[in-house]
TrEMBL record:
GO terms for biological process: 'de novo' CTP biosynthetic process; UDP biosynthetic process. Pathway: Pyrimidine metabolism; CTP biosynthesis via de novo pathway; UDP from UMP (UMPK route): step 1/1. The keyword Transferase applies. InterPro entries: AceGlu_kinase-like_sf, Asp/Glu/Uridylate_kinase, Uridylate_kinase, Uridylate_kinase_bac. It catalyses: UMP + ATP = UDP + ADP. Keywords: ATP-binding, Cytoplasm, Kinase, Nucleotide-binding, Pyrimidine biosynthesis, Transferase. Belongs to the UMP kinase family. It is an enzyme of class 2 (transferase). This is Uridylate kinase. It is found in: Cytoplasm. Gene3D superfamilies: Acetylglutamate kinase-like. GO terms for molecular function: ATP binding; UMP kinase activity. It comes from the Bacteria.
């Protein structure tokens, strides 16, 4: 395997499947099986998941809601998604722990770095919920922060497109895909990979990011195995 310990970043919208909102149990089960293929190969897996399928703080703020309140609601949405993903993973036979940046002791452990790393060493999947625990920071930032803290080899950003393109491939048929690209080139070309805070943090810590299509079964294993799937952002 090319990577020993990974941080998988999933969007909340990814859990909707073909629905307009909420959680699609079929999509959850598919993700769980894909994750099982890599844990069975000895890869240590941590996951950060967004909450946009339930609530998005920025959207709430744009409609007049207090931004801090909205972001706290978004954090709780990520915990709901984390619980759903934990259930699906355990149904697939994968031991899983949910840790949160905000204390909800009845449903999840608080985030403790050393404990998280110990879980990973024991072969458990660790899901990080609650974002960073702070308003104004996205789950992209949470993903990079947690990846650095647990000393992950890479951030795998699972999306619905198969990499980074010169423009939006869903809107521009002439868009060209990059197999690899540097952090500096992403910034120079103004390409959207993650929000600026998360991307800069990843760049400063020389933590590579691989953007790939998570919705094609088997792609996760291919990425971890080192196959040229998606786009790798590196120094």
């Amino acid at each position: 395997m090319k990577f020993k310990r990974i941080l998988l970043k999933l969007s909340g919208e990814a859990l909707m499947g073909e629905r307009q909102y909420g959680i699609d149990p079929v999509r959850l089960a598919e993700y769980a099986q894909d994750i099982k293929t890599i844990t069975d190969s000895g890869v240590e897996v941590a996951i950060v998941i967004g909450g946009g399928n339930i609530f998005r703080g920025v959207a709430g703020a744009s409609n007049g809601m207090d931004r801090v309140q909205g972001d706290h609601m978004g954090m709780l949405a990520t915990v709901i998604n984390g619980l759903a993903l934990q259930s699906a993973l355990e149904d697939a036979g994968i031991p899983t722990r949910l840790q949160t940046a905000i204390k909800i002791n009845e449903v999840a452990e608080p985030f403790i770095r050393r404990k998280a790393m110990r879980h990973l060493e024991k072969g458990r999947v660790v899901i990080f919920g609650g974002g960073t625990g702070n308003p104004y920071f996205t789950t992209d930032s949470a993903a990079v922060l947690r990846a650095i803290e647990i000393e992950a080899d890479v951030i795998l950003k699972g999306t619905r497109v198969d990499g980074i393109y010169t423009s939006d491939p869903e809107k521009d048929s002439n868009a060209v895909k990059f197999d690899t690209i540097s952090f500096d080139e992403v910034l120079r070309k103004g390409l959207k990979v993650m929000d600026t805070t998360a991307f800069t943090l990843s760049q400063e810590n020389k933590l590579p990011i691989v953007v790939f299509d998570m919705n094609t079964n088997g792609n996760l294993l291919k990425v971890v195995s080192g196959e040229n799937i998606g786009t790798e952002v590196n120094v």
